[in-house]
Amino acid sequence: MKELYHDEVSNLDKFRKKIDSRTIFKEDLEFFSEQYEELIAQAKVITRVSDRLQKKLDTANTQIRDQNQEITDKNDELESAINQLVKAKVGKKASTILFIITIALLIFEEYFIDPLLDQFSGSDYISIGIKVATAIIAKLLEGKLEEYFLNREKDKIIRDDYGKIIVKENT
Description:
mainly alpha
């Protein structure tokens, strides 16, 4: 393969040999000077082209960084919105289930436990205490039920190697 500046290197070698042999003429100096000026002109053109390309590359890299940041921000917003939707869905589901269970327990207490309490104790305070305890326990269980449903939803969602969210199909 021919060297990039083969002719210039060859001319330089010839000029050095003439210097060593002390046979330099005015034409040799003029030729060498012209060759040097041409190299400088080429270097200027190459430098300008290189500078323009570097500027374009820097601009493109800046745009890519900005777009990547924007995508990251949008992904974070999307993930936050998904999490809020999942929590709302799970919270509604847990509240509905607990509401039904609480009503069932209160009906059970009203029709089955209250008559027994009336027989053995004549106090309405025990019945009210049981109802309050049922409501408090239901509220405590609501958090646990939400956590259970939230974990089930999280198990349905996985991430691939690129951070992309993949939703598993219900099987």
